[in-house]
Amino acid sequence: MPKILTNTIIVDKKGGLIIPSQIRKQKGIKLGTVLTLKISGDQLIFEIQPDPIQSAKGSLKDTGLTTAQFLAERKADDLKWLNKLNLI
Questions:
Q1: What pTM, to 2 d.p., does this model score?
Q2: Percent of the chain beyond pLDDT 70?
Q3: Both 58 and 45 in a single domain?
Q4: Is beta strand 43-48 parallel, antiparallel or unpaired with respect to 35-40?
C-alpha cells in the first residue's frame, strides 16, 4: 500500500483549498493542472488528470484523422460532458 501523507488544509470563505507547496512540487501540480475530485464516504480523493496536450502528442498518426477532425471530435466530447453535468 502506498505511503499516505497527511496535511491539514483549511477551506476559505469561497470554498477554496490551498494544496501545500511541498505536495504541489512533489506531484508536479502547477497553474492549469486539472484535478478530479472523487468522494468515497467521508473521504475526498483528488486525482491528477494527464495534460491533454502531452497526451495528444502523436495520437493522430495511427487514427487517420486530420487535426480539424480530431479537434471537432474533442469539442463534441466536451459538449457531451458539459451537458451531462448540466453546465450548459
A1: 0.53
A2: 91
A3: no
A4: antiparallel
